[in-house]
Amino acid sequence: xxxxxxxxxxxxxxxxxxxxxxxxxxxxxxxxxxxxxxxxxxxxxxxxxxxxxxxxxxxxxxxxxxxxxxxxxxxxxxxxxxxxxxxxxxxxxxxxxxxxxxxxxxxxxxxxxxxxxxxxxxxxxxxxxxxxxxxxxxxxxxxxxxxxxxxxxxxxxxxxxxxxxxxxxxxxxxxxxxx
Length: 179
What we know:
Blueprint: H1 2-6, H2 8-15, H3 22-33, H4 54-66, H5 72-79, H6 83-93, E1 97-99, E2 102-104, H7 110-129, E3 158-160, E4 168-170
């Protein structure tokens, strides 16, 4: 009994996730002391879970695609499924995880990105012919930059599959320093 309990730390290193918890080791030791000889699980009442079938995986997948910010509880309630089953479908069957939006200085559309790229390329070309170009740049006075962030980190959580890009949101709260 005591040796089995002491070895759970070593067993966890050897067997990883398959290791029995410390409390389960105590429970099984007690059962064997009381005369139990069988190591099979006791029969349980109730029917086996059928929530993780193809149809339910597809239903959950469609709900998550329609709204990536849905919570597991909301999906479970709407589909009339067990919370744990929905969690396993999302994380194991669909390989998704919930991530927060990455904070970026500003979200730009394709036209704005293109214009910024062109300006940078123009500057690089001018630097080749005018190496002292940046020494002649005049800057203005300091000014406060205001930003506003209406969404908290938790509110930005959404489901992401391994292949999809991480969601982004623009920083929009008042900065704590002058620029």
